[in-house]
Amino acid sequence: MGLADYLRIARRRWVVLVAGLVLGVALAGYQIQSTTETYSASSTMYVSMATGTSVADSYQGGLAAQQRVRSYMELVSSDSVVDRVIGQLSLKMSRDDLRAKISADAPPATTLLRVTVTDTQAERARVLADEVVSQFRALVDDLETIERSAAPAARVAVVDRAERPREPSGPGTSKILAAGILAGLLLGAAAAYVWERLDRKVRTTDELEPLGAVLGSVTLGTDDQLDELRALRSRLPDKAKSVLVAATDRGYAPDLSAGLADSIAATGGKVLLIDTETVLVISAEIAREAAASPSVGSSGVDIDWPVRNGTVSGSAEAESLFENAAQRTTVLDTRKIPATPPVEDKASGPDQGGLAAVLRGETTLEDAVLAPGERSYARLALGDADLRTPDLLASVRFDAVLVEAAARYDRVLVGAYGTDALALASKCDATVAVVALPAPNPERVGATRDALTAAGATLTGFVTVAAPRRWRRRSGDRR
């Protein structure tokens, strides 16, 4: 994986990265709050040897002093020194507790010895440091005195006495916070990487290329949608009179096929969109009657009445259906919907029963097709479907409808999903498989491709459809 791949993972899994960072900062804050502040006091000593006055004697004495410093570092926290300090200061602490507060170090190639005592109280840290140095010097005098009347072979002099610390030396807030941030980022990055590797969803068009040709990608509801539909239009087979837009998920076929129909019609051809998913039928007569009703506003709109299985939905259900179908039909104002759907006078206008009525022989294709109106293409919605409609879609009656439509129009687009798409696959000249991103996994997309091919479809390729991100929709609304 390259840098671009890691950046893509970070962009896609940024929530995990932020969660890891927050967790790391929270743990660091807890560690800082739960750790008691400590103070450190230090005292520096100089170790020298009793030697002659010559240069050689001084050099040998310096080497001997450096060697002794290594041993003295161990003597600083020895039991003898610790016991003497406890007894001298009458401390109520154990030998191990005091030893844990004492540390010693020596700069390289020097005879300096630095003793540091750490305690929760600044003044007590200073007192303990001075007392440890005092008792250590006394111990060295005892150890280095060979004869009672002779001077010690080594001498330890205090260079800097311990001072009362002004600021705490621990717990090291900056270091702990930096460590928490780093650990949180590493944890978030590891979790994001593991999640990415375990995620089998198809998110990009590149992941579909091993499964077949990719005709394009369309992001619905964005400024780029028009250009993306034009690119898709240019990749459709020129000789294909009828094109099936087959989707595995409900709702994508009507949106994509409507946009594609509008794009094709913009080139000057006559286009018919057969929508086998939308059960709503638009009637100009109903719109005029609704506009004339006292309960309707002054401006007229096209109103779709949901009719399925011979029953008419109530006003509350109709409002919900209109809201869900608004993107693929028309902009609706639910305040203008009458309490009951007005009955259209068949003598005053065409029969608007939809595709289902045509398949049942109740009306003709010419009467059922909705004129373009403000649209650039004609449209035939499913209409008042019943239990027989799925079987009629798979029958020769739909073949006859398709033949008649092909004779009347330059291009016929059929939008369908699920089993209806499989039933219509062999009836159209070309098939475009719609994949909604993110798709569950490549295996499911491959199974859809195999099912369409087995049903007799002439699969042209895949087209991916994605809804715009929320922030993009909001920014578009503001514009």
UniProtKB/TrEMBL annotation:
One of its GO terms (molecular function) is kinase activity. Gene3D superfamilies: P-loop containing nucleotide triphosphate hydrolases. The keyword Transferase applies. Keywords: Kinase, Membrane, Transferase, Transmembrane, Transmembrane helix. The chain crosses the membrane at residues 176-195. The keyword Membrane applies. InterPro entries: Bact_polysacc_biosynth/exp, P-loop_NTPase. PANTHER family: CAPSULAR EXOPOLYSACCHARIDE FAMILY (PTHR32309:SF31), TYROSINE-PROTEIN KINASE (PTHR32309). This is Protein tyrosine kinase. The lineage of its organism: Bacteria, Bacillati, Actinomycetota, Actinomycetes, Mycobacteriales.
